[in-house]
User: What shape does this take?
Amino acid sequence: MNSSGISRRESQLITDIEKREMVIFTPTDIRRFLEISELNARRIIQNMNNKDLITRVERGKYILTETLNELDVYEIVSDIFRPSYIAFWSALHIHSMTDQVPRTVFLATTRRKIALHLQGQTIRYVTIKEQMLFGYERHGKVVVSDPEKTVIDCLRHPEYSGGVPHIYQALSKDLDPEKLVEYCTRTGSSAIASRLGYMLEKKKINFKKDKLKCMVTTYTKLDQGSEPSDPDPVWKLYVNREIT
Assistant: This one.
């Protein structure tokens, strides 16, 4: 960071942002903190950018360059676009439910959002339905789905989670089966219920089967990308991928 020649207003802005523990800020924030016009806010942005005091994350959104260098990408991404939370394969990694580190940082959100690039990584926002926006929590600056919701999200979108075998390996007795069933019920998804019920049964994890069975109304595939096979009659699931 080139800190030479920082003006009084620039110094005040940095102090205001740090005092509020903000990660991402906008020109509107600058106008509000400094009580200045839109034109002056744009000038400050340009000057601070030239001095490498701030970094543009995307149009109209900025981060202090020092903050960008200090924080992990996981501590930044959820604040870029709200509401959103780290999910799928990235959440599996955060909760140590996988040994693999995804190259893409996956987030769930209810609105369409184009991919971004930050700290050398691709940030991908996956659109989910409003009814799926639950089961996430904040740990410091990281907003991530809890372990049980991570599994539910992964079963809805295996393509963003390393694939069905990867999700099956993440299932363990450390998870709360009642919470898994409750979360599944909230989604109202027959496909998630089929996959979850089949996997829990195969893992020999005790759970309330009747609650999931009554949700299963249509046949679905275990692996979305494979051809159908003979279905499991209990879970109405085409077990078209081997999981061990």
About this structure: The chain has a mean pLDDT of 94. The chain has eleven helices and eleven strands. Residues 191 and 234 are 13 Å apart (CA to CA).
